[in-house]
Here is the input.
Amino acid sequence: MAAESITTQKAAAEPVKAPSAASSPYLAFPFMRTLANADDAQLIVERLNTVRPDDAGRWGRMNSHQMLRHLAGSMRVPLGEIKVSDAEVRHLQRVVLKWAALYVPLKWRPNFPTRPEIDQCSLNPHLDDFEADQRTATVLSHRLREAELEGKRHSYFGALTRADWLRWGWLHADHHLRQFGR
Here is the structure.
């Protein structure tokens, strides 16, 4: 009983920080990183800035420059700058895939199929200005944080909320940055 009283007193003395109404619901869970969180977004920018042209991929066909272009192209989809075809996925599969990809705290598997509209191996086999494309990916990550994203469609997941898009943005960038050891 005395131990219970001490635990209750300690819990009452510690302030609980609740996320603001304007923030993402993922902020309540530290393992759920998202571009909605300024620290998480800054971490992605810092990691993007460490990518080098000669970084070798741990999986997949892209080189590091194509990866930067792929991230930029992918972020342009919810911004309405690039239209991609929907994947042929049944509704129930979409729901499960979206839930698993965004909410289950596991790393994404390598070599998930890329939509042809943002497949940089096919679109851009030879690229010339690495630093400019690196800056573009960084700028687009900032724009994504500020954009009106509610209801925009993802080719595999369907319509997403703004919170879902910002969670996806962090996970997608993290996935490809890990691909190149960053």
Observations:
- The domain at 27-179 is CATH 1.20.120 (Four Helix Bundle (Hemerythrin (Met), subunit A)).
- DSSP finds seven helices and two strands in the chain.
